[in-house]
Amino acid sequence: MMRVLFALLLLFSAQAHAFFLVSDPWPAGGPQPDVCTATEQPGPTTRDLTLGITETGLKYIHADLSNATPGHHVWSIVCASNTPGILPSTAVTFPFDVGVTPAPANLRLVP
Questions:
Q1: Which of 5, 9, 76, 79 has the greatest CB tally within 10 Å of its CB?
Q2: What pairing do the DSSP bridges indicate for beta strands 59-64 and 71-80?
Q3: Other beta carbons within 10 Å of 10
Q4: Which residues are registered as beta bridge partners of 52?
């Protein structure tokens, strides 16, 4: 029974450390984005970012960073609307660091 509880504790503690990039919602009076893209150098590597929607219909970025490799990252984020005549946003630079999760300490097996 203790092994099951320990495994569940590890599972929940690992999930609690997931990192996300979350923006404020877009203003209600302005156009709402349909797509946001992050470009990372060197490479460049491009990825589409997930857009969430508030209860009032406003969109915001909600990107999962849990698969980011350890080290320093710099993303350049641009959002765009599919509405004709609406130009893409100006690029916003977002730097962040991902550390290496240390191994658990002071663990031992007890017979």
A1: 79
A2: unpaired
A3: 11
A4: 60
